[in-house]
Amino acid sequence: MLTATPSHHPLERVEISLGDRSYPILIGRGLIDEAGTFEDVPSSSDAMIVTNTTVGPIYAERLARSLAPRHRRVHTVALPDGEGYKTWETLNQIFDALLAQGCDRKTVLYALGGGVVGDMTGFAAASYMRGVPFVQVPTTLLAQVDSSVGGKTGINHPAGKNMIGAFYQPRLVVCDLDTLATLPERELSAGLAEVIKYGPIADVGFLDWLDARIEGLRQRDPEALAHAVRRSCEIKAEVVGRDERESGLRATLNFGHTFGHAIEAGLGYGTWLHGEAVGCGMVLAAHLSARLGLVDAAFVARLTNLIERAGLPVRAPQLDATDNSGRYLALMRVDKKAEAGEIRFVLIDGAGRAVVRSAPDALVREVIDACSCA
Amino acid sequence: MLTATPSHHPLERVEISLGDRSYPILIGRGLIDEAGTFEDVPSSSDAMIVTNTTVGPIYAERLARSLAPRHRRVHTVALPDGEGYKTWETLNQIFDALLAQGCDRKTVLYALGGGVVGDMTGFAAASYMRGVPFVQVPTTLLAQVDSSVGGKTGINHPAGKNMIGAFYQPRLVVCDLDTLATLPERELSAGLAEVIKYGPIADVGFLDWLDARIEGLRQRDPEALAHAVRRSCEIKAEVVGRDERESGLRATLNFGHTFGHAIEAGLGYGTWLHGEAVGCGMVLAAHLSARLGLVDAAFVARLTNLIERAGLPVRAPQLDATDNSGRYLALMRVDKKAEAGEIRFVLIDGAGRAVVRSAPDALVREVIDACSCA
Predict the structure, then answer these.
(1) Does B281 touch chain A (CB under 8 A)?
(2) What is the pLDDT of residues B162-203, one digit of tens each?
(3) Residues B115, B54: contact at Cβ < 8 Å?
(4) Domain A12-182 is in which class?
(5) Would you say domain A200-371 falls under CATH 1.20.1090.10?
(6) Mutate which of B127, B240, B333 to test chain A, going by most A C-beta atoms within 10 A?
(7) Is B257 a catalytic residue?
(8) What residues does Zn(2+) bind to (chains A, B) (predicted)?
(9) What is the ipTM of this complex?
(10) Chain B 136-195, CB below 8 Å of chain A: which residues?
(11) Is B339's CB within 8 Å of A166's CB?
């Protein structure tokens, strides 16, 4: 699964196996500045770099230079930055830019930024002229280890997160580890939430490694980051290859997300970062797992400690002054995993294995009340 | 390909063969009122009938009764009627209704109406929670013979028609011929444009039949309508089965549409009906075919006469007072079939066969000038 380039820094490669929709994830340093990174992307007259106003000024021109051999014209559109802008209005800015430039249906879209840019660019690519190719160039840890891989794309609706979107696979994912050097600390921690997730649901050994290296990761030790990104991508690739459209196994990747989505929606998108909500959501889900007798208290304590050391919140915020747990329940009932109004939780059934199941409302309320900020 | 029901009226069945996305088109009378019509649709808690304010009052309750055995709750949302409403804002009314009713990702959408309802419902189904099942129940001739079949879904953008959408196949198409009895005359003619199209591109014998039966079709002779719908669906099924995502052959179904889309966009969506623009567009494309030496003048005259007898416009409208043909060209350059700014026309190369190719601007201008209203 790993290959080394002849150059001085190692290039790692993880394959997503989905038949004729298979594609590689390239992981390494300085990838944005190398034209060779993109040599397997289809050539076309036009390319559109979709980025945001934070990331664009740093990387867009450098990426455009590397794309010049493959596309005659490389356009750029910079969206406003933040989860609060993951809306139809912002998505439409991509369509407006594509149409203003006369982009045809061979045009390749490049998502340069974090999860919001990746999700919106992917959905724009899925929908523009009923589908054009796209490439993910994630510049946040969260996007590199999770959202850029696997083809989930979409936008938010006031009533729920990622309610409108498509399963649409990129042609290539480029994780340039150098982009993590400039990432704000809060976003690094948010990304670590999605890294930590892979331990309890799939790999106890990785959880042990994280316990030992969490401080190094926060200090951006390049070797530790490279391992964390690669191992996360390997686990995600394995799961997505077996269940692309989330008919079963893939739902386990949403560990912490049912509670997390309620927190994000309840506070208003963008108040907490997605990764922060997922970090806290994993604590809640671990407590629920324990109350259902699936894990012991030591596991809950260990996971909570790791999440806290990653710089993430572990106490659930108040979403409603009079009926806080009721508000959580109401928000979780519109989660995409819910079926006929029954909330489906991803729970840990012994560390290293996840199950998807429902739980009595009363028990869920107890967990929320026990874990909430006063 | 045909089966007969034990009941007094014949039920015809045309299969769309697309592997695990295959589905039947049912053609017959009184189908909306029979629960058996829908017996192969997946059962679920919720269903949503998406219709418009014209069709809904006539058929929505009847359809809901037939769906009762398959879905515990059948909701309805009625959109404003007309091509001018094929926008994101209207699409969002579908998402709002789905979320307001707590519809989960097993919910089945039913498109009850013409092409606009079908295209928007299909795109809503493709995008809601990244994809839910849907059924087409077309109530216009145009939708029965063309737009409801083959999985093209989408909405318009101010800069071009159907610019945003998805290839997403329905589970079933139900063509209830009785719904054509109440169709306004102008819409019946618009539907005939798409019926006529199948002759020149695929079946000269069908063109002969149309020449003989066009008056009967306008008088809604049930037997003639049944044959026209079935033969149109058969040809479309054959083409879509061989080229679902329009990498080649399927583009020939757009005969008349390159000019037609320019007319629709240039006049403002909804001024001419889609079928009217396609009818006139076929006349222009036939003239262009003749000027390129692909067909003779007699064919152009014969096709123009048939289109006129179908009650459709055959003279191109003025889109610009100072540079009319330049305006047509500019609008056609943003057509989805255009590549690197080169317009791709569907032309007739001997009646019964279509080719997709470019043409010199000067020749296109001559055709537009020669065929325009003074």
Answers:
(1) no
(2) 999 999 999 999 999 999 999 999 999 999 999 999 999 999
(3) no
(4) alpha beta
(5) yes
(6) B127
(7) yes
(8) 194, 257, 274
(9) 0.91
(10) 152-154, 157, 159-160, 162-167
(11) no
